[in-house]
Amino acid sequence: MKNIQEQKNMNSGSANSNPDGLRQNIGKISKKIFSSVPTVAIISALTVGGLLISCQDKNNQNNKTEVMQNNQEQKEAILKPIDLYVEAGRKGDGNIAKPAFASTATMSWSEAGALKSVPIQALFDGFSAAEPMEANYKLTTLDAEGDVAIVRIESQFGPNRYADMFTLVKDGNDWKIISKIYQTIK
Question: SS3 of 117, please?
């Protein structure tokens, strides 16, 4: 045991005190390894490794394309209710937005620091009471996992701008907004 411990102390001491010695030892070991392996074998291994990486990249690219296509289809399906919501505001017709929302959906906001929450029918009534107006939105966040999603948009209805956030759940083949919260942007 004493010899082993002394050897460890000697090796660690010599490596710590002489970094050039450590580099020389690594260099000698590398030369022994690579001089005993024929150059053709090294080149063959590198070539086969490169081909494997190339095939893996191609398979990953195919998978990425498939995922991107599925994600694009899912994104369009999730944004369909958002489009109906904005269209209802544009045309001044709350009935256009009804298919976008679950019947139990709510709309919430903060007013003077107090939480306000109403059934979604209040939104439909508000759209129907308003005149048609210019309306648009910009998607800022879409996060989906399985049959649930969160969407954040910046919308404009007439001169008023909003940060709208929606939670959606897939119902059969359709996505339904179950909750809308918003903040007026000044």
Answer: strand
